[in-house]
Design a protein that fits this description.
globular; binds iron/sulfur cluster; alpha/beta; 3-stranded antiparallel sheet; binds pyridoxal-5'-phosphate; 9-stranded mixed sheet; single chain
């Protein structure tokens, strides 16, 4: 057995020491006693997990601050709105040919080798499945997924998602990526992770060296607020950004990042860390998350205000998934509309339109 002692910079230690009960959380953050019963129910629906590292950020945050809203359970989670469902993006059902694999788009597929995460986000779109009983896939799930990938020669890209694939031990993760690399028609690998936000110490030198040999491999991080992009995170992520391309997905969250100043700072800070903002997701209609969803108009107006004030490469696509698994829908306003043989075009920050076309 390895011993992980009380080493703060060890990701196993961070994972093992994470707060998982309301009692621990209430003590750490001085939560008011009256509300705790509701919070216990909330975490029976979607677990609680906060690493000591992220907890230290929460301690600097206001009681209703943005980072706390992302991970501290709320009694509002017990209220379900009529539009909310357990599979808001259609991951299950007809696009799931074998367990742990979603094949919606012909050339790229998702696999979830684990449903465990480095921390549990209260707004999680997969909250009905994530962090539940059988976290890691079985040997037969793995075999079935690899057989499916081998048989489907149209597949060009495999995306590891979850849960969080970086919850797998190095040996298991690297063996899986190597097995995927052996399939000749798979050209690109991708790994989606929120681990760096909750447990940046996971990005060890050893991991970086192993991942670097598996390229082309795109890493897609998940940060929602500039306060998550700490100097500690930067020191762990920079060496990774030197060897692999990094993209980021954010979720637009009510009272957390749904204002121009926060998004601007988030995207500039991602740029400094050499991470390209890829998607800004409108939150999915997952059970008990109404209090964290802004309306679409808010999101579209924010995107419009940011366009042209930010470098183009720091502007993510604002997208929505709808039930049934139709795939992502871009949500920006339309700035070009067909008119006769030409186009009526409008700059996002102007009301003046012009007709564009060859004469
Ligand atoms: C989001 C998603 C992908 C990846 O989409 P990209 O636009 O390539 O990032 C792939 N499969 C499914 C089922 C998805 O929901
Ligand atoms: S890291 Fe992703 S899958 Fe895990 S709880 Fe957060 S949103 Fe859900």
């Amino acid at each position: 057995m390895e011993s992980f002692s009380d080493n703060y910079n060890n990701w196993h230690w961070q994972n093992a020491q994470a707060v998982t009960t309301i009692r621990q959380l209430a003590e750490a953050l001085n939560l008011p006693e009256n509300d705790l019963a509701g919070l216990n129910t909330a975490i029976s629906l979607h677990p609680l997990k906060i690493t000591p590292y992220y907890l230290s950020l929460l301690k600097q945050d206001k009681p209703d601050g943005p980072l706390r809203k992302m991970v501290v359970p709320s009694a509002s989670e017990l209220t379900t709105s009529p539009e909310e469902i357990s599979d808001p993006i259609g991951d299950y059902g007809k696009y799931r040919p074998v367990p742990r694999l979603t094949h919606r788009h012909p050339e790229r597929i998702l696999i979830s080798p684990t449903m465990a995460c480095a921390g549990y986000c209260r707004y999680c779109f997969r909250r009905a499945r994530v962090g539940k009983n059988s976290l890691t896939w079985s040997a037969s799930n793995r075999r079935e997924a690899l057989n499916y990938l081998t048989a489907h020669v149209e597949i060009k890209e495999v995306i590891l998602t979850g849960g969080d694939p970086l919850m797998l031990p190095d040996a298991e993760l690297i063996a899986l990526l190597q097995d995927l690399r052996q399939i000749p028609h798979i050209r690109i690998l991708r790994l989606h992770t929120r681990m760096p936000a909750y447990n940046p110490f996971r990005i060890t030198e050893t991991l970086i060296q192993s991942l670097a040999e598996l390229n082309p491999l795109w890493i897609v991080t998940h940060f929602n607020h500039p306060a998550e992009l700490t100097p500690t995170l930067e020191s762990y992520l920079k060496p990774l950004s030197r060897v692999l391309p990094l993209l980021n997905q954010s979720v637009l969250l009510r009272g957390i990042n749904d204002n121009v100043a926060t998004l601007r700072e988030l995207f500039w800070r991602l740029g400094e860390l050499e991470i390209k903002p890829y998607y800004l997701h409108h939150p999915d209609q997952a059970l008990g998350t109404r209090h964290l969803r802004p309306d679409l108009k808010t999101g579209r107006d924010l995107w419009k205000k940011l366009w042209g004030t930010m470098p183009g490469y720091l502007m993510p696509q604002y997208v929505l998934d709808i039930p049934g698994g139709h795939g992502k829908i871009p949500l920006n306003y339309q700035y070009a509309a067909e008119e006769k043989e030409k186009f009526r075009v409008t700059h996002p920050q102007s009301t003046k339109t012009s007709l564009y076309g060859e004469t």
